[in-house]
Amino acid sequence: MNGGYPAGPLARSIAWATVLYLLLPITIVIPVSVTDQRYLSLPEHGISFRHYANLLGSESWLASIQQSFWIALGSTLIAVTAGTLCAIGCWRIGRRSTELVRALMLLPLIIPAIVYAIGLYRWFGTLDLLDRFLGVTLAHGVTGIPYVVITVSTALAAFDPRLEQAARGMGASLGQTLRWVILPRIAPGIASGAIFAFIHSWDELVLVLFIASRNVFTLPRKIWDGINENLDPSMAAVAVLLIVFTVALLALDGALRARRQ
Amino acid sequence: MSAPVAHALELRGLSKRYGSFIAVDAVSLRVDRGQFLTLLGPSGSGKTTILMAIAGFVAPSEGAVLLDGADITGLSPERRDFGMVFQGYALFPHMTVAENVAFPLRVRGLSRADRDARVRGALDLVQLAAFAGRRPSQLSGGQQQRVALARALVFDPALLLLDEPLSALDKKLRAELQDELKALHRRVGRTFVNVTHDQEEALSLSDQVAILNHGRLVQMGAPEALYERPRTRFVADFLGKSNFLQGTVREVGATGMALQAGATRLVQAGAAHPAPGRPALLSLRPEKIGLLAGAETAENEVAGTIASWAYLGAGYSLSVRTADLGEIRVALPAWRAPIAPREGLPVRLGWAADAAVPVLEDADAA
């Protein structure tokens, strides 16, 4: 804000305390990841990158990373398609009842993941989707929809409805209007939604614990097991890589938004 | 542009209700091929709803829209073949000027070469060929308006619909673009339907003006006919300025009638009149009243004093207080004005028997 009053010392210290509170637990994994010990600890005699080497040389870690990536990509595709169509549909109909649809789409955010996971477990059992790539991708895709609905609805709120009228009036079909007028205008919103949906799947654990066991072993699942079983510092190394990857995605989102303005 | 193919538009008993609110009430009208029709009315008069019904964005509750005699009421907007200039232009911000103008052609699946040629032609038509590569946000309001016009005309539509095309512009630019729009209409020879609340714009642009109030068509005709022979008080008041003189019919003759307003006797030319003893209302334009000097006389004379006055450049606007007719507004040319106006100055007003027009009260006209 320009021209506002500068923050007082109390406000400043509270703000910094909050920032530290948010960041410190995350940054603690950085020194841990370069420890020279064999267990999760701070470095004692020096810095060592052997846990990173270990991680990148381990087939089981790389397999998990790969699996997580493909699941995240597939579920992002599902979430973006369904969420974008839903947001556009609600926007075009524009009646009071569409508010209900939009609220319904946000349910995965509101309902505790564990409740949802129990339901999925029962249901996927009968559908033979347990511990399968498709099952996890579907579950992550559906729970990623809210992020896309929110970002695309926000982008549509700024869209001048007369542009759609103009396109239709000039003879454009609904499909042409969607492709040439609406989608280019809301593309940044879709991209934001896609990034959030990707991150959502990338670090989702609760659902995976319920609906996957051996065949599907995503990265968060592997970290979880690692912490429970052997306290290997490779976990800290993978956590650092995860942070770097997520920050890169968020930076991409920021760059896309900046380009829009 | 290829050879002009103009179309005739007809509305038959068009009505639009929103719940219990009647936005458009049984409007019937006809525009001939190549005519420029303006729907004129205050806000809430239903003019925009009628335009949207012609475009197909609003489904009428009753009635029909006909193009060259064919009923198009049930067609969706994209199948009606009209060009439209939207309020605020609705240019696509993510496309260049050329891409905007090419849009209707792209939709119709024209080849790139055909598209480019016609886009150039349309941009030449509105003198914007040099701006083809710019984005709409880099253009002035007047230029954006011209891009919208080029985009609406590039595919040779049957009809051009204009929704308050000049309302976003400042006054000087508006006058300029009015002239351009009129010249463009002549050049492309198509049927134009324009919506506005600006009576000057309606008078200067149109072949036909339809005046709307509360969803009803009050009167339709050529601008001169509407201005000179308004049917109701609303029309006389909305188109230009008018004085309203209230009197009682005294005598009715073959060529006119005599009215009594207090102690003042008025003579009014014209054929059809109400019966003696009935009240009558006359509309008298401020510019048709003269100031009488010395021994000068007129068919109608009334004495009063100047209550207030304003200098408007081309003329003075006087408000003259009279005993029997209330305050009468007089437009006086400033060039060699017979008097120097000041408040309280006694004056004699005079006007010819055919200067005023009998009009109906709005309630009686319904």
From TrEMBL, chain A:
The chain crosses the membrane at residues 14-34, 69-91, 103-124, 136-159, 180-199, 235-256. It comes from the Bacteria. Its main location: membrane. One of its GO terms (biological process) is transmembrane transport. Gene3D superfamilies: MetI-like. Keywords: Cell inner membrane, Cell membrane, Membrane, Transmembrane, Transmembrane helix, Transport. One of its GO terms (cellular component) is plasma membrane. It is a multi-pass membrane protein. This is ABC transporter permease. It comes from Dankookia rubra.
TrEMBL record, chain B:
Residues 9-239 form the ABC transporter domain. It catalyses: ATP + H2O + polyamine-[polyamine-binding protein]Side 1 = ADP + phosphate + polyamineSide 2 + [polyamine-binding protein]Side 1. Its EC number is 7.6.2.11. GO terms for biological process: putrescine transport. One of its GO terms (molecular function) is ABC-type polyamine transporter activity. Keywords: ATP-binding, Cell membrane, Membrane, Nucleotide-binding, Translocase, Transport. It holds the Pfam family ABC_tran. It is an enzyme of class 7 (translocase). The complex is composed of two ATP-binding proteins (PotA), two transmembrane proteins (PotB and PotC) and a solute-binding protein (PotD). Part of the ABC transporter complex PotABCD involved in spermidine/putrescine import. Responsible for energy coupling to the transport system. This is Spermidine/putrescine import ATP-binding protein PotA. It comes from Dankookia rubra.
